[in-house]
């Protein structure tokens, strides 16, 4: 057997996902009989809407269990995504050349970066950042460059912060809205700052919209490709996991300019080949069928947000901004010398609360903890009660 030193150094040096690590530890404790409240992951607690399930079952019964054709997505789904994209952005998209259906949104991110990066190219990312962005950049030979957003401004994006990190090697900017983990939703001013800077420096934008339908208080999700001059440089990643409670279905898509998408399709064909055929029919049902289930889920998340934000701000040593979208809270523990990793370990060990340390999302997440509210109100009440009992020990 070859010596261990001959294995991939790139993967050996890459950290394990903190979200997965804390979830795995929580499951071990649960197997040992501990009562654990799972607030670390991002899996909606709602079932997939029934009409989507029924469509998938029918697709299987009708024999759609082979390779799809084209491999990058069946034509009716490509057309449904194109129609949705045009409705959201006001910019038309060619369904046959500018869209790839992917097995989950994460693969869309891989294809987007894979289509534009050369070794050594720098990719800006906004910190706090979802845990997989940096590893994906590194896996594709890019150099991740953080743009640290200050907690004091509620992680607001400005042109000045972006400009400060740009070099002649900068190739792209990655961002998502609504944001995981902060719950921020991109404002018009922030979107304009992104458009201004990326056009000035001729950068690509990889825009992650997975939580786009989960925005609160009358806010509107901004489709960056719809801003003047942005369609030709924006690679938009979206999917069904979060908004439609379809995490296990692994169905997403990438939309972008023709030439990068041509290269992405080549990478797609040589790696995963295709997303699952019958799930593509389920995706058509999701995009074109009743949207009331999304409204119901969004309202439930809003109610949970209101309860949790109010409850957390009443506890000593914790401050929590209200979130604008998605289903994560990112409270700051203000009166402790402990790191966010130590705080997360205490929450799990003393209170049976599984949560994600803020530094999993970058250095600017220190002293923060990410709580998922994609769980029942009953469990959230219990979590607050337990947290109140140990707040003085953190």
Largest sheet: 7 strands, mixed
Helix content: 25-40%
- Average pLDDT level: 95
How is the largest sheet built, in terms of strand order? 2-8-7-6-5-3-4
Which series of helices and strands comes N to C? HHEHHEHEHEHEHEEEHHHEEEHEEEH
Number of helices: 13
Q: What is the gyration radius calculated from CA atoms?
A: 21 Å
SS strand fraction:
5-15%
What structural class do you assign from the helix and strand content? alpha/beta
Distance from first to last alpha carbon = 47 Å
Number of E-state strands: 14
Q: Low-confidence parts, pLDDT < 50 over ≥5 residues?
A: none
Overall 3D geometry?
A: globular
Write a brief caption for the model.
By secondary structure, the protein is of the alpha/beta class.
Mind explaining what this structure looks like?
A seven-stranded mixed β-sheet has the order 2-8-7-6-5-3-4, with helices on both faces. Strands 10-14-13 form a three-stranded antiparallel β-sheet. The chain has a two-stranded parallel sheet with strand order 1-12. The chain is an alpha/beta fold and 394 residues long. It has helices at 9-12, 18-31, 50-61, 75-89, 105-114, 133-139, 159-163, 188-200, 258-270, 277-288, 292-313, 340-351, 377-390, and strands spanning 37-38, 99-102, 122-127, 143-148, 170-176, 204-208, 234-239, 252-255, 318-319, 328-329, 332-333, 353-354, 356-357, 369-372. 39% of the residues lie in helices and 14% in strands. It contains 13 helices and 14 strands. The radius of gyration is 21 Å and the shape is globular.
């Amino acid at each position: 057997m070859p010596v261990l030193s001959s294995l991939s150094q790139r993967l050996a040096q890459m950290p394990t996902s903190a979200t997965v690590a804390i979830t795995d530890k929580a499951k071990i404790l649960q197997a040992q009989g501990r009562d654990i409240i799972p607030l670390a992951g991002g899996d909606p607690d709602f079932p997939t809407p029934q009409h989507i399930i029924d469509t998938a079952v029918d697709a299987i019964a009708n024999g759609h269990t082979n390779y799809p054709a084209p491999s990058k997505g069946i034509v009716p789904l490509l057309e449904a995504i194109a129609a949705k994209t045009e409705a959201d952005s006001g910019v038309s998209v060619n369904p046959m050349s500018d869209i790839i259906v992917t097995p989950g949104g994460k693969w869309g991110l891989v294809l987007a970066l894979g289509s534009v990066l050369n070794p050594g190219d720098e990719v800006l990312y906004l910190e706090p950042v979802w845990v997989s962005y940096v590893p994906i950049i590194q896996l594709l030979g890019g150099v991740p460059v953080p743009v640290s957003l200050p907690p004091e401004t509620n992680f607001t994006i400005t042109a000045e912060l972006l400009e400060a990190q740009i070099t002649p090697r900068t190739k792209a900017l990655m961002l998502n809205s609504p944001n995981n983990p902060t719950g921020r939703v991109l404002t018009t001013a922030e979107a304009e700052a992104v458009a201004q800077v990326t056009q000035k420096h001729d950068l690509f934008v990889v825009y992650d919209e997975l939580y786009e339908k989960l925005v609160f208080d009358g806010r509107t999700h901004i489709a960056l490709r719809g801003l003047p001059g942005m369609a030709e440089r924006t690679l938009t990643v979206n999917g069904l996991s979060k908004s439609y409670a379809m995490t296990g279905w692994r169905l997403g898509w990438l939309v972008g300019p023709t030439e990068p998408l041509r290269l992405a399709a080549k990478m797609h064909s040589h790696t995963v080949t295709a997303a699952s055929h019958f799930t593509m029919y389920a995706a058509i049902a999701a995009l074109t069928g009743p949207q009331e289930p999304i409204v119901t889920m969004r309202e439930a998340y809003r109610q949970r947000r209101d309860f949790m934000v109010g409850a957390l701000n009443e506890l000593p040593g914790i401050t929590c901004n209200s979130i604008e979208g998605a289903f994560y809270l990112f409270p700051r523990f203000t009166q402790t010398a402990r790191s966010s990793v130590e705080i997360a370990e205490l929450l799990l060990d003393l209170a049976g609360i599984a949560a994600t340390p803020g530094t999993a999302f970058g250095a600017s997440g220190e002293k923060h903890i990410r709580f998922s509210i994609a769980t029942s109100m009953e469990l959230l009440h219990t979590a607050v009660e337990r947290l109140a009992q140990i707040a003085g020990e953190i």
